[in-house]
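pasting input
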Amino acid sequence: MGKQLLLDNIHAPGIATLGVYREFGGYKALEKALKMKPEELVDEVKKSGLRGRGGAGFPTGMKWGFLAKPEGVPRHLVCNADESEPGTFKDRYLMERKPHLLIEGMIIGSFALGARTSYIYIRGEMMYVYHILEQAIQDAYDAGLLGENIMGSGYSLDLHVHPGGGAYICGEETALIESLEGKRGNPRIKPPFPAVSGVWNRPTVVNNVETIAAVVPIVNMGGEEYAKIGVGKSTGTKLISACGHINKPGVYEIDLGLPVEEFLYSDNYCGGIRNGNKLKAVVAGGSSVPILPAELFLKTAKGEPRLMSYESLADGGFATGTMLGSGGFIVMDDTASVVKNLWNFTRFYHHESCGQCSPCREGTGWMEKVLYRILDGHGKKEDVDLLWDIQSKIDGKTICPLGDAAAWPVASAIRHFRSEFEEYIKNPGSIKDVKHYYRLHNEKEPAY
Amino acid sequence: MPKVTIDGHEIEVPKGTTILQAARMIGPEVAPPAMCYYSKLKTSGGYCRTCIVKVTKGSAQNPNPMPKPVASCRTEVMDGMEVANFTSPDLLEARKGVVEFLLINHPLDCPICDQAGECDLQNLGYEHGAAKTRYDFERRTFEKIDIGNKVQLHMTRCILCYRCVKTADQLCSNRVHGVLNRGDVSEISTYIQNAIDNEWSGNVIDVCPVGALTDKTFRFKSRVWFTKPVDAHRDCKTCAGKARIWFKGEEVLRVTGRKDQWGEVQDWICNDCRFEKKKVSDWTIEGPSHIDRHSVIAQNHYELQNLKLDVGRQLNKLAGEAEKNNTNTSTKKATAKK
């Protein structure tokens, strides 16, 4: 097992309460941070090499450095807890078990950025986590860790939790900001970036839950020490939520740079494929990233063993690589159907598209319908090429990355599993009923 | 002042100009089409993606090309920027894709649509789209909704350009007009069908690029190419009173704002002028409106500068021409059709 910086003591009884959290060394980092200068804290984060854990992997220190600091204009730190990517459930686990870790990270981050009011934007479906956070924040206020003059340092901070209405799109930072302001959660057109004009047109930093939580160990151990964990530009530890056809699904904290083979087969982590089945494909970082077949996943196209790191997983670009993404690790054994899985993903993106720009609004629905037609046994032989053409016309043409996220799984599935699509079209008899999904949700299945 | 090169044409523009505006300054030969951008509405644009262009050189300081096509209506020019629009085959292919997306859920029933003949989507499809559709699924449909007693909304035709939402936002107070739902089932609506009770609300008809918002006082009265647009004005307490009135014979069938070369109204007009003033005596006629000769509205259209006051000489000339060309009218029609 690697270092457990975020998940240490996660099973300790009562770790969600302030008292137990402090017994295990909680809020030590805050004490240390409040004695430092804000710029020093930003420098520590820069030194740590911490990269955004929400999916894009943008260096956090650099993001904090970009924050505009005009005179007399308040700044905000916003925590993006709208975790809704299929396959990703690491933030929820962290928040429900150790809410104070996030709150401590929020206070340190806000202090480093000079924010006096900060927000946690939580996904609407996770209402029970919202209540846990509310309770934790109340406890922190009562203990003088939030509010006026925190720990006698003269720094004051208000922290609010804001539940969303249950839209995946509000995980996109500018849509999140719109939603936080009380508007319809449509992504904004960038520029201006949130670092210049975010919440209420004030400079804003939006960070993922895990990114903010990782600031706590960085302050505790020092940025340089943190940077020693990991490999190359992928420093530190990362939470991976493993699911699918593995023996031990769950949330694991790994040192970045762990070989994927070890992660997949070691008993410390996933524990191998269920029933001793053969590995077929892996979606390494949440539904948005390209799917990879087993042979390309375990070894890169050059024949090097693949590591769990930003660079190694992206090796080979989209042709033979994928992305670390948000750490939603979905494993499929040889009983799984890539086409069916893809239809489910595409259905999700169709449902979650905000409808603002045309390629994503119309294209996602079109792809779902074509995939449904294939799965319903009425696929045409030109449908695979049609799907490829539709995804290529969505990719890169939209306002926000949701369009890309909808296009990449389609592109990669066709790239690596084209024969499976063709098999479905040639032998429609081999297909099991897929209508149940629509019946389950009281929806009308696509007509053709 | 930053200099920008679009399809090989260099132009110097004020700081803060967008690529689309700069392209329009050069002329229609380089201007990308726009379905959602409206220069008179703040924060409009960026949604339809038809105006995407390729930035092949970011700026003089940073000559790297931009990785993705950008929405020209919302991207400001930088000094030394180089933009490819009609000169980039990839981009034209991408735009064709966008047009296809706009059309897959749009009914292709132009012959029974009231907007046909002055529809931006029709023009766009003609210029940038494919001849055949590849979409063979059921298209989304909605019931028609009345927005007030003068405006009808037919969401089935809507391409969600948000222009009417911005109009309602920026012209009308007490906004009750917005977007409901999400994704491809989102719909423009006044909340629970509240009417926009405002003297400017009729302008949503003019900004609508398709036949989704139509004038109930004009619906199905005539095809637009049978009506003749004439610029006219009147003393109005609310608006500037500069409008375009559409004649069929002696009768005024409808009143709209005056649209410029880019299909945008020059002055907003009030509902009183638009819906109530339908007598010739209400208006001071200025003369025939300028209509692009490529438009179907240009059929049988004549312009003021061609109209000689000396009718006698005019008739002589026409007679002379008629002799030359045998039938004058048929050639005129033929050129108009081209």
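fyi The interface with chain A takes residues 46-50, 52, 67-69, 71, 74, 94, 97-98, 100-102, 104-105, 134-138, 159-160, 162, 178-179, 181-186 of chain B (CB under 8 Å).
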